[in-house]
């Protein structure tokens, strides 16, 4: 969802995920709900069919960044008459807003993190890292 957060700018916020089953972000926003089998109404299936038939669906594109994907989708939407050229930049800006995922931690203070020498030593003496070098 595109959300406005704490007087900051808009950002995309992850509200659900599918790992074998569907999980939603709980009301507090700190954890995922219990996994459950999602069901769709007949109306939702008709809506999905309509979106696939009449909307922009691009399954095979050569792009390596989100910027390239957004540009290709917007070009396709303008070419098919689904989007007016005059609002292209506004839609592109909305698509490329920051994405906040549930597992990301927000740091409220700008104090740098201090790690112990033991933690630093563990990272640099990891057997997998030593094998690569």
TrEMBL record:
GO biological process, one term: regulation of intracellular pH
Annotated signal sequence range: none
One function term, GO molecular function aspect: sodium:bicarbonate symporter activity
Pfam families recorded: Band_3_cyto
GO cellular component: apical plasma membrane; basolateral plasma membrane
Protein's name in the database: Solute carrier family 4, sodium bicarbonate cotransporter, member 7
Residue stretches making up the Band 3 cytoplasmic domain: 1-126
Taxonomic source organism: Mustela putorius furo
InterPro entries reported for this sequence: Band3_cytoplasmic_dom, HCO3_transpt_euk, PTrfase/Anion_transptr
Biological classification of the source: Eukaryota, Metazoa, Chordata, Craniata, Vertebrata
Coiled coil start-end: none
Organism domain of life: Eukaryota
């Amino acid at each position: 969802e595109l959300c406005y957060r704490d007087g900051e700018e808009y950002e995309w916020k992850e509200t659900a995920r599918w790992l074998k089953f569907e999980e939603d972000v709980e009301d507090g926003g700190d954890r995922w709900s219990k996994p459950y089998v999602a069901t769709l109404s007949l109306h939702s299936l008709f809506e999905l069919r309509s979106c696939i038939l009449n909307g922009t669906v691009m399954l095979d594109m050569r792009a390596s960044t989100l910027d390239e994907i957004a540009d290709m989708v917007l070009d396709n939407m303008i070419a098919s008459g689904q989007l007016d050229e005059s609002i292209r930049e506004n839609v592109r800006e909305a698509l490329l807003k920051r994405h906040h995922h549930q597992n990301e931690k927000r740091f409220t203070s700008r104090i740098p993190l201090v790690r112990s020498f033991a933690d630093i030593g563990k990272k640099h003496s990891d057997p997998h890292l030593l094998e690569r070098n």
